[in-house]
Amino acid sequence: DVLSGGRLVLGVAAGYQKSEFAALGADFEARNEVTDEAMRAMKRAWTEADVRHEGRGFAAPGNTMLPRPAQKPHPPLWVGGNSRRAIRRAVELGDGWMPFPTAAKAAPHLRTAKLETLDDLRARLAYLREHAKSVGRETPLDVCFVPFGLDHFASGEVDPPRFRDEVEQLEEAGITWLSVVLPADSRRTFRERLASFGEQILSER
């Protein structure tokens, strides 16, 4: 955050691949609790001196972390995942939520809820607002979403009229940021797709 002049946004997720946890000797079944504790520990490290903490995943006998982040009180924490647990984490501990398109057949493997349509997204956003109200959160969350058809499994082809229409619907639903994937098999192709996206989409906004 210091090196970038305060431009860091930190994405946080509990993880889903058991093999990765096994490689690190980490408890897969405790990933949600440890993730919540990690977020609390990071916030304390960024804002306090002489931090003393003894938890399940982290121990600090009186640590002070320097330099302090450029953003105050700390860089925004955006929580990834479609599950209700991820939404509650975003509301209670985060500054943003990052859902992503997920086909029903892929949801069990990714260990998150399916999110195939705009209606699925609206339902999750409704739950986010309900939970925020129930815990007394008044500060709005940023919500970053990958438009349908422009995720990591897509071809990267963009239909400008359809894309602009979807962006308007996402904005109406409460999305504040977009993440766009433009797959390419070479640097040249990526630059061409990026330039085309800028000319066809961004210049019209």
Polypeptide structure, described:
The chain has seven helices and seven strands, in the order E-H-H-E-E-E-H-E-H-H-E-H-E-H. Strand 6, helix 6 and strand 7 form a beta-alpha-beta unit. It is α/β, with parallel strands linked by helices and 205 residues long. It has a five-stranded parallel sheet with strand order 1-4-5-6-7, with helices on one face.
Give a quick set of tags describing it.
205 residues; 41% helix; alpha/beta; 5-stranded parallel β-sheet; 7 helices; single chain
Write a short abstract of this structure.
The chain has 205 residues and is an alpha/beta fold. The protein contains seven helices and seven strands; from the N terminus they run βααβββαβααβαβα.
Q: Count the strands?
A: 7
The rough form would be described as: globular
Question: Biggest β-sheet, characterized?
Answer: 5 strands, parallel
User: Low-confidence stretches at least 5 residues in length (pLDDT < 50)?
Assistant: none
SSE blueprint and pairings:
Blueprint: E1 10-12, H1 18-24, H2 31-47, E2 51-54, E3 59-63, E4 77-80, H3 84-93, E5 96-98, H4 107-110, H5 118-135, E6 142-145, H6 160-173, E7 177-178, H7 187-200
Parallel strand pairs: 1-4, 4-5, 5-6, 6-7
Antiparallel strand pairs: 2-3
Helix pairs in contact: 3-5
